[in-house]
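Hi team,

As requested, here is the filled-out complex form for the S-adenosylmethionine run. I kept the field names the same as last time so the parser does not choke. Let me know if anything looks off before we queue the next batch.

— J.
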Amino acid sequence: MTPRGTLGKDRAFLRPLSRGRLLLPDNGHVSNSLRPFSPRLADRLRQTLVDADYTVSGVRDRLGDMAARALSREQLIPALRATGGEERLGVLLRLWRLQEPVSEASARAMLPVAELAEAGLLSVEDGRVRALVHLSPWELNEGEQTGYVVSDPTVRPGQGRLRADHVVGAGGASATLSKLIVDGPVDRALDLGTGCGVQSLHLAARAAEVCATDVNPRALRLAEISCALSGVDNMRTREGSLFEPVRGERFDLIVSNPPFVITPDSARYTYRESDFAGDTVCSELVRQAPRHLTDGGWCQILANWLHVGGEDWRDRVGAWVAGTGCSGWVVQRDVQDPAEYVELWLRDSCEQGTPEYTRRYDAWLDYFDREGVRAIGFGWICLRNDVAQDATVRVEDLRHEIEQPVGPYLPDVVDGAMTAHRLTDAALLSAHVALAPGVVEERIGVPGAPDPERILLRQRNGLRRVAQVGTVEAALASVCDGTMPVSPLLDAIAELTEQDTAVVRQRTPEILRSLIAEGFFRVTR
Ligand SMILES: C[S@@+](CC[C@H](N)C(=O)[O-])C[C@H]1O[C@@H](n2cnc3c(N)ncnc32)[C@H](O)[C@@H]1O
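And here is what came back:
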């Protein structure tokens, strides 16, 4: 395990579930009953949405930057101003995205209103049509394709409370996980805790078949509708907790954005909380995953973990993975103190300003105090079922901005860590290594000084790591292209820099091992 220092923050990761909240029944437009949604109706609705340019790019262009940013702050006015009039895209945006009623005449002019009302997606009253679900375009394949995600409707602060079986829409955490998924093609993929089905949309292009599970039957219906509207026909749903619905089955790819929120209450809101205490929903997922993975299969989950007094979080989470026998990569992307954490999730469930707010806030902090919790980490855990005796686990803090999507280069990250872990000093000296593509050198020092104060190697892509190195490693970086083994290169560098060859040979393998594990160098043979 190699802890690293960190730079900056990806705050989007902290807004995991803030979209698509549901009004309570007394707000008058909740759809409790979703009825069968025929493929013909799905095709027709999709065609209408696409024809009206209700797509990722169409919506982006129509809203513009200011309204889109305001919407992310839950402010509707700029978006309403940008979508006025009776033109089709504006009407669709107001209806499905902004959850505003539209006139029955303009809805009927483009949508099969009666059939959608029968399916439980719309309601019609007094010449006004309201959406009973939130329906939004979602970017697939790096923007090459638009999918549609259907979830429970949005509620803004002060408008009501969430219901217990609320199905959350796709948000920052969904995007983080979808960008983490390794490339296919594979035979079978599992989307555990599918919710609105967003991960299934991403998995459907990678896997011959996708199994989507959830404890919430309402989530399964909405996930099916999301898939139908997105033209996905290789996804099937199953109801149940964690791996229960897939007992005895194996998958090449398992992804999950589980209900990881750590609260004193049990499963108050299914979309984010479970009956598992503390962070054990995540440790349980990790513990059970290997018996559902094919050889070489991947499990990729988002997680929260506790920082408890007297314990290093790396040991805590590292132990979850080490127990699996899989190779693992654990990344902490953010850390919050208990008060920040409680505020985030009380805001997420629209409890700010309610009479319950102070009591819940206090009780939540009491709970963290009792458990000795100092902070809560957010991040991801990736496992690969390598069937190797010497599987390695890398646990690190990486809070700066990294290249997205991570999935395409993620296997190289794990391979680098595995390779470094396996190489003895002797094997390293006789190995052929090359500088990884995209690595540059930076020298920092006083202008005109004969020697730099610091030499840095910087990755211009991927994880964008920076490592401070000595003159030997910098010289190695400038000459190694995989054609010669490390040891004669080191001898030449020692001679040039007037250092003792034996000392250089003895000191360099450990540093080089760490640089290989971090992806600055690659072993070519
Ligand atoms: C945070 S949402 C994730 C939704 C979606 N997969 C995404 O990436 O945005 C977590 C989902 O897990 C489901 N869930 C809660 N407890 C569960 C359990 N014990 N087993 C399986 N799914 C569960 C919730 O109903 C919810 O749909």
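Two things worth flagging: The radius of gyration is 26 Å. Confidence is low (pLDDT under 50) at residues 1-30.

Thanks,
J.
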